[in-house]
Task: inverse folding
C-alpha cells in the first residue's frame, strides 16, 4: 500500500506541474495574441491614414482646379462683356425674359 500512496502522490505532483505549465503556456499565448492584435491594428490604422491623406490631397487638388477654372471663366466673361457690351445686355435681357416666362407657368 505504501507504494500505491507514493505513486499517487507522484502522479498528483506531476499533474500539478503539468497544470502550472499549462497556465504558463496559456498566459504566454494570451500575451502573444495581444501583441499580434496591436501590431495588426497599428498596420490597419497606418493604411487607413494613408488612404485618408491621399483622398484629402486629391480633393484639395480638385478644389483648386475647380477654383482656377471658375476664375478663368469669370475673367473670360468679364472680357467678353467689355468687348461687346450691347450684345451682353441683349443676352442678359433674353435670359431674364425666358426665366420669367418659365416661372410664370
Result:
Amino acid at each position: 500500500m505504501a507504494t500505491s500512496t507514493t505513486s499517487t502522490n507522484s502522479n498528483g505532483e506531476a499533474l500539478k506541474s503539468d497544470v502550472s505549465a499549462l497556465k504558463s503556456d496559456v498566459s504566454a499565448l494570451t500575451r502573444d495574441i495581444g501583441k499580434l492584435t496591436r501590431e495588426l491594428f497599428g498596420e490597419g490604422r497606418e493604411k487607413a491614414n494613408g488612404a485618408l491623406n491621399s483622398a484629402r490631397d486629391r480633393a484639395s487638388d480638385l478644389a483648386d482646379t475647380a477654383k482656377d477654372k471658375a476664375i478663368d471663366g469669370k475673367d473670360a466673361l468679364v472680357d467678353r462683356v467689355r468687348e461687346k457690351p450691347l450684345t451682353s445686355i441683349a443676352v442678359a435681357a433674353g435670359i431674364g425674359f425666358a426665366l420669367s416666362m418659365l416661372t410664370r407657368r
The CA atoms of residues 15 and 21 lie 10 Å apart. The radius of gyration is 40 Å. Residues 2-104 form one domain.
